[in-house]
Automatic annotation (TrEMBL):
<comment type="similarity">
    <text>Belongs to the ROK (NagC/XylR) family.</text>
</comment>
<dbReference type="InterPro" id="IPR049874">
    <property type="entry name" value="ROK_cs"/>
</dbReference>
<dbReference type="InterPro" id="IPR000600">
    <property type="entry name" value="ROK"/>
</dbReference>
<dbReference type="Pfam" id="PF00480">
    <property type="entry name" value="ROK"/>
</dbReference>
<protein>
    <submittedName>
        <fullName>ROK family protein</fullName>
    </submittedName>
</protein>
<dbReference type="InterPro" id="IPR043129">
    <property type="entry name" value="ATPase_NBD"/>
</dbReference>
Amino acid sequence: MLAVDIGGTKLAAALVGRDGAVLRDATVPTPPTGVMDALTALIATVTEDAPPPVAVGIGSAGPMDALAGTVSPVNMPSWRGFPLRERVGELTGLPTVLAGDAQCFALGEHWLGAGDGSGSLLGVVVSTGIGGGLVIDGRPLLGPLGNAGHVGHMIVDPYGETCECGGRGCVERYASGPNLVRWAVANGWHGPDARALAADAGRGDPTALAAFERGARALAAMIASVAAAAEVDTVVIGGGVAGAGRVLFEPLERAVDEVAGLAFVRAVRVVPTTLGVRAALAGAAKLAWNQAASRAARPGAR
Ligand SMILES: [Zn+2]
């Protein structure tokens, strides 16, 4: 199976076996223009002289329209309504399936990573923004247009600050990397980015610690709400901010404990990613394997 992961900073591709083994992979930085040319070269690199894949799974930054097969990644201004599924299908001559990169992250962690054995799982990618994906009763929940799982824009304070999405009080406004930094700087911290903020929190800087406490509480509100709505038993957290480690996960565990009420919500397990950057590729491959299996079960269908 050929898996492709398309993001604002990098493009990745891999050949992935039925058991999840990565046979070959490659990554390149996302160019400002000519993204399709870079992707074409990348796919050629991983498929050259290899057993031909049977299908392609694509995880892409969104938003997207999965019905039309088009993507409009926020950080890739040269792609607006770009017909990604059709173009990759033409390029490879293979059945092609498209989902969100965070949806693929969740599915990959459920298949091979920290969510292995979970019945229903929420994957959260905390980075420049906050993305998410759901696996419910073992199946990915993608949504009619492929936008299910956008948990970064779940509202944790209806009287809160206006979010970039136009909504109000979204968890992303409190807990994404740039927003952790923004709050810390407004409260007297000096530093360039979320990585420096995490390092200072690790050294006991009170403002840095308070920034992670505040972000963790917002994440906990979102997590408890999703657990209540969808009975997820596991939440896997990845993305650059998750690399902060215990300065994020310790206050997060405490906050979930404090805000959650119902027994099945309190039982939710919150864990860091084990696959890291490979999770989205694994999930894209799994999506393609799932689709190949359903095609096989319906002869004549594509
Ligand atoms: Zn929002």
